[in-house]
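Take a careful look at the sequence and tokenised backbone pasted below. I need to know what the token row says about the fold.
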Amino acid sequence: MVVWKLDRLGRSLTNLLAIITDLKNRGVAFRSLTEQMDTSTPHGELLFSLFGALAQYERALTRERVMAGLVAARRRGRRGGRPPSIDAETIEQITAALDAGASKASVCRSFKVPRSTLIGTLDRIGWTGPVKA
């Protein structure tokens, strides 16, 4: 397969490497006219290997930057993820009602909370049910 320039074949270095690897596995040689890269020659194989190493390095740097950004955001008090669907005060009221003997169905109706959300929240907070004396 012959292309004028590498950027005509793939959107990113990772995508380009995946395409060239797929071609290689199917026994198709690749040649770029502008970059003078031909995977059927030892020189082209070397360039392909270097591109692979650069892509791996690029992924590692990106991951490192993302992790550093998450740590910095946590230090600033930011938390990622979806916000809780039931606030802490409502959870206290719900658990008090359940401890008093209310059914989950009635609690769901009273607090306008879907049953799946209620059950998931109770699992997350570790609620085990009413305490029996």
Observations:
- The first strand starts at residue 2 and ends at 3.
- Residues 42-75 form the longest helix (34 residues).
- The mean pLDDT is 88.
